[in-house]
Every structure is written in C-alpha cells, then in structure tokens.
Amino acid sequence: MERPLTVLQVALHHPTQGPAAFAKVPPKLQLDTSPLLLGRGQDAHLRLMVSRLSRQHLSLEPYREQGSSLLSFSLRVLSRQGCVWVNGLMLRFLEQVPLGAVNRVAFAGVQMAICIEWGISLEAFVCCVHLSPSPLIYRLKAEETDDHDEIPPQQQPPPGGSGEQTSGSLGFLQDPSPTQDSALQPSPGGGTEIQPRREPPEEALC
C-alpha cells in the first residue's frame, strides 16, 4: 500500500532577475530524509542563478519529533555571508529554525514561500516548485538588508529602546491586509494552491 508523501510547496520570486534566476530549478523532485540543499552550486537540489548566493546557501532538513508520526522540517543557514530571514526572524551561519505550515523566507534578494502538506510517509518527501510573478513578502517600511551590521547608524534604536524594532530590519515581514495575502491559499480539492497576488503595493520587498 502506497504511503502518501509529505509535499513541500515552494514558491520563488526575484524582483529583478525574474524567472532567469530559477532556470535550473526543477519543477518537482523527490528526496529521502536527507536535507534539501538550496544554493548556487551544482550539488544544490534547488540551484538558483543568483550571484549573491553561496554554493550551499541554506537547507530544508526533515526530522521526526518524538511521539510524532509526521515529518517536520527546519531551515538551516549554510552561508557565512549575509543572513536569511524566516518569518521575520534573522538567522546567520549554522542557525536554524523549525518551519510551520506556511513560511516566508527572504535571502540575497530572493523571496520564497514554503507551504507544508503533511503525509504519513517517514521515508521520503516531495518538493514542488512554482515561480511567482508577484512579490511573496510585503513590508511596511525600510529597506531590506542582507547584513544586519550594515544598517546605517540613524536606523539603530535609541538608547534604552532595546524592545523596539529597528526600521532597517525585516521584523515587518507581514502582509498589509488579508485580502492581499493570496500567495498561499487552500484549494477546493484540499491541500494548498500557490497563486500570485493581485495589485502588489509599491513597497513590495526587493
């Protein structure tokens, strides 16, 4: 009896290079429980033609939590350059974070949305890749930065304001309104369908 596989629905967007950045990315691939590598190198499962990427930039790593019958996933940063934003959290080299059902990731100008559709197989999973013509992540203000250390001094929080977010960080990874959040929506037949947004605002993340 066939055991349904967990599916990672991955949407990719680059504001300047467009589909050319993802020309070498396969639309679908199946892996065992080894990490899925994303980067610029030939050994990457998802090979992105973006000069600012490392050969191995990040990995999506399946694991099984104790007492769970499903595969869970974490994102680990493999690049020593810059940083990776995951759901508004900044990660650096070798840091990792568990993924939820829907995740927004930004790195080196690339925007990525990851939706997990859980299956019952613990031996393998599938990754399906979609290219989005519209931005996947929206911000309220400030410029994106891949290097937290390069934020201009005027954007640093005032003394004593450690609890405030800086205007130069991606802590504002959120959608302006529910009506514009159409990148990841339930499909009529179940699961999740990735669709481009309508009328993205001018402040879409670069």
TrEMBL record:
Ranges where the FHA domain occurs: 37-105
Signal peptide (from-to): none
Species this chain originates from: Echinops telfairi
Compositionally biased intervals (Basic and acidic residues): 195-206
UniProt-annotated stretches for the region Disordered: 146-206
Protein name: TRAF-interacting protein with FHA domain-containing protein B
PANTHER family listed in its UniProt record: TRAF-INTERACTING PROTEIN WITH FHA DOMAIN-CONTAINING PROTEIN A FAMILY MEMBER, TRAF-INTERACTING PROTEIN WITH FHA DOMAIN-CONTAINING PROTEIN B
Polar residues: bias regions: 176-185
Taxonomy, superkingdom: Eukaryota
